[in-house]
Amino acid sequence: METPDIVLEALDIHKSFGGVPALDGCSITLPRGSVTGLIGPNGSGKSTLIEIISGLLAPDRGTVRMAGTNITSWPPYRRSRHGLARTFQVSRLWEKLSVAENLMAATPSRGRDDLWRTYFGRRALRKADEADRDVIYQTLSGFDLWRLRDEPAGVLSGGQARLLEFSRIMVSGATVALLDEPLAGVNPVMADSVLSGVRQLNDRGITLLLVEHNLSVVEKLCPMVYGMETGQVTASGSISELVNTQFFADAYIGRSRERRKS
Amino acid sequence: MFIFLITTLTYVGFQGILSLGMNLQWGYAGILNLAYIVSMAVGAYVAGVISLGKAQPPSTFYVLGLGLPFYLGIIAAIAAAGLFGAIVGALVLGRKIRANYFTVATLVLAVVLAQLISQTTGLFNGSEGLIAVPQPFVNAGLTYNGYQASYMVVCLILLGIVYVICEVLRRSGFGRTLRTIREDEIASQVFGHNIFAMKLKIFTFGSALAGLAGALIIFYVGAFNPAGWSVSETIFILTCLFVGGSGNNIGAVIGTAIVVTFFSQGTQLIPGFQNYPELIPVLRNLLIAALLLAVLRWRPSGLFPERIPKYDHQPPAAAKG
Amino acid sequence: MSGFGQALGFGIVSAALIALSAVAMSMQFGVTKHANFAHGELLTISAFTMVLMQKVTQNLFLDAAVGICVSAALAWVINKTILQPFRRVVKRLIIMLIVTASVSQIVQSLLAVGFGTNYVVLSVPSETGRHIGPFVWTTIDVIIIVLAILVVALLHILLHYTSFGKAQRAVADDVDLARIVGINSGAVISRTWLLTGAVAGLAGSALAVTIGTFSNLLGFTFLLVTFAAVIVGGVGKMYGAVVGSLIVGIVTEVSGYYLSSGYKQVIALGVLIVVLLVRPNGFFATFVADTKA
Predict the structure, then answer these.
(1) Assuming Cys at both sites, which of A95, A225, B70, C1 could form a disulfide with A154, CB separation 3.0 to 4.6 Å?
(2) Chain B within 8 Å of A130 (Cβ-Cβ)?
(3) What is the third-level CATH fold of B2-306?
(4) Could you report how far apart the first and last alpha carbons of chain C are, in Å?
């Protein structure tokens, strides 16, 4: 049997805060093009894992690999240039930048972060801007945000903010994206368009890791799910497989209390 | 009155450059650097010791004393201040220091460096400071008023050039990335921006501009000492910036013009008190700080708030019909 | 060696002075989450009150008591009239730094209007130091050391065994969570400022008595060593602030024994920079909790 093409893997990740372990030998793998769910009670270490994969926290031990490259010690910006993107539980938009600028700043830099070229290579930079225009237009109109292009991102509703975060991922050229509770802070009316946004990301070939509490959402989107408890992956499979496991009983039916505060 | 106007406009010239440099750091990148004024001092001192002749102990002590022409002094001032900014930036930016700590560290640095320079006589003549710095073209045969007016024009032209430089930056992708750092630096990193490098560049750039202003000041006044770069001067620059509108270059310049005219130069017109000559500068500091508080409270985005650039792209679909 | 012992003795006194100021700042910083650049002025106001009070009574303890009250009142008033309204409208905490820097400038200027920018003198009975072990301390030095220990002990009891202390620690940990469990965070912050002002006032009085001659910049100059101690110790950790004070106090005084005393503050900065480079959030910080700026 052929092993699936792995885009991202985190192996045996350990991380503790002030002596209290948050991740205790946690491993996950994401096959190319998949939507993988990550579920578990509060404080089970899901967020810590996301922070470590995106490079905002350094693990005490363990390896993060992207398409075979060991990226464990890379800073976040380097991971991004390698094709990793993410959203946050509470949307992190650049609020005083316009919606369009939020996308322009998320496209690959192509020399625009270079002070020298800002003054002495302006023609090339203008070309870079031109090259981004079509994809920005298409992405924004695809999410019905084009009419808001000149509004500051701070005025968007929770759902619109989510869609703008997805748009940023699309224009960034990412191949893998981590979505940390994409429905948090989203008005139920907007939930469907956010979910279809998740599907659109995947349709573009972006591999997704989805952290979500709502199991019916996870069931709809993710054929493969990891269940986390106290810093370890204790179950994996489809939701229907997980329903009958001890993990599910512990985490969702409430035989055990939350073992650690978040 | 003529000379008051000339002096005021000259001050607007260099204070405007200072405000624009700080706007790069605070207005764009959101870095609150209370050691900013030290970059100005570095520029002033370096310009001074480059253009002054050899020190004459026992009356004066300072390093270098090269006696070179003023333009070399200005170039050296810009370079030295930029280098200073880069060193400070490399030390305190980018590490996982919270913004709060960072600002505290810069304040401590500013005060301690002022003390160090005052204590160390051999460097820039201690607390006496540099004096009798030769003014450029002072023997070119101009009248006093003519000289003052010419100096003013030079300062205002340089202010204009610096304004254009800053405005090009604001409209560029570089400026946009800086504003993402100000708004949310975590998101900025996650979308591929090396924020440490960006901050370091703008820190260096802003400091270099402050160095230019410092050189202009020392050549204008002919003297410079540690009293000229206390923490209250940083507050002064911040006030100019907030009155005008941080993040907006034209706001920075107009804010500077207003604050310099009414609060700095204006207070000099108040008749002095015979037995209490320091009262005027004290009142000036009081007014400036109160003005800063008032602006922050009731008009935090200033007279000219930052504008969001319009996205000038006609979609292909809209073009068709 | 006796010279070194003497310097060490001075270092301990200086550490006690810094500790008084630093525990006050550390507590306030921990609760409000922003540095207070006007902290030094709380010390200054107490010292100047003592100078004024000397016209009424020569009893230094009474003078200091009034100084402490004035300083506590000032801290409370600044919070009520300036900081609290700002905290409601300001989104970025860093703006609060500019606000407190302005307040510092205003108080300094007002003092200069009232007293001039020259030195004022607090008359303190002169006494020679006595040998206590390897150290040479005056009675005042001993009182200050004892006071510092007492204040730290009292604060420990206050923070760990009273309902106010528990509420304060809850607010310091997480304001929103504290609000959810029904703690009136505004009142807690208000009282924290009162307490901070009182302890800082005590530090100011002690400092005034120790040096005797000072200007309106007294506290501002002392602010730097306080910051150094607080950051070395890790913000919001009282014992961290005490250890930070010991490090900063002893290092500056002992190095002052070898170097010109004018470089003391430079040494304090050196300590601070080394610590910021090695442990950006202080020696006693366990991990970087916030990824926000």
Answers:
(1) A95
(2) no
(3) ABC transporter involved in vitamin B12 uptake, BtuC (1.10.3470)
(4) 47
pLDDT digits (tens, 9 = 90+) for A205-253: 999 999 988 888 898 899 999 999 888 888 888 888 887 777 777 776 6
Q: Per residue in A101-120, pLDDT tens?
A: 999 999 988 888 888 888 88
**Residue of chain A with shortest Cα separation from C285:** A18
> Among all chains, which residue has been given the structure tokens 């003014």?
B135
Q: Which residue of B has its CA nearest to C232?
A: B101
What pairing do the DSSP bridges indicate for beta strands A224-229 and A35-39?
Answer: parallel
Residue contact A81–B186, C-beta within 8 A: no
Domain boundaries, chain B: 2-306
Look at C260 and B119 and tell me if their CB atoms are within 8 Å.
yes
- Strands A35-39, A207-211: pairing kind: parallel
Q: What local confidence, expressed as pLDDT, does residue A255 receive? A: 44
User: If you classify domain C2-278 with CATH, what class do you get?
Assistant: mainly alpha
Q: How many CB atoms lie within 10 A of CB A209?
A: 25
What domains are there in chain A, each with its CATH number?
6-92+175-190+206-253 (3.40.50.300)
Residue B124, strand partner residues: B62
Chains in contact with C, counting 3 or more C-beta pairs less than 8 Å apart as contact: A, B
Q: Mean pLDDT over all residues of chain A?
A: 88
Q: Is B90 on the interface with C (CB under 8 A)?
A: no
Q: What is the mean pLDDT of residues C158-164?
A: 89
Q: What is the mean pLDDT of residues C24-45?
A: 92
Per-residue pLDDT, A260: 41
Q: Do C286 and A18 touch (CB under 8 A)?
A: yes
ipTM above 0.90, yes or no: no
Count of A-C CB contacts under 8 Å: 7
Surface of A (62-101) touching B: CB under 8 A: 75-77, 80-81, 85-86, 88, 92-98, 100-101
Which residues does chain B have within 8 Å of residue A150's beta carbon, measured at their own beta carbons? 308, 310-311
Tens-level pLDDT at each residue, chain B (321 residues)? 788 889 999 999 999 999 999 999 999 999 999 999 999 999 999 999 888 877 777 777 788 877 788 889 999 999 999 999 999 988 877 656 666 778 888 888 888 888 888 887 778 887 788 887 888 877 777 788 888 898 999 999 999 999 999 999 999 999 999 999 999 999 999 999 999 999 999 999 999 999 999 999 999 988 888 888 888 888 899 999 999 998 899 999 999 999 998 887 776 666 666 567 778 888 888 999 999 999 999 998 889 998 888 887 766 655 443
Whether C291 sits inside 8 A of A56 (CB atoms) is yes
Parallel, antiparallel or unpaired: strands A84-86 and A176-180: parallel
Task: Tell me if C291 and A51 make a contact (CB, 8 A cut-off).
Answer: yes
Contact C291 A18 (CB under 8 A): no
Tokens of A110: 């192509």
Å between A114 CA and nearest CA of chain B:
7
With b meaning 16 or more CB within 10 Å and e meaning fewer, what string describes C228-250?
Answer: bbbbbbbbbbbebbbbbbbbbbb
Mean pLDDT of chain C: 86
Outline where DSSP puts E strands in chain B. none
Query: B91 and C277 in contact by Cβ < 8 A?
Result: yes
Return the HEC string of C104-169: HHHHHHHHHHHHCCCCEECCCCCCCCEEECCEEECHHHHHHHHHHHHHHHHHHHHHHHCHHHHHHH
Across the interface, of A115, A129, A141, the residue whose CB is closest to B174 is A115
Contact C113 B186 (CB under 8 A): no
Cα B237 to Cα B193, B228, C26, distances in angstroms: 29, 13, 29
Give me the residue spans of the domains in chain C.
2-278
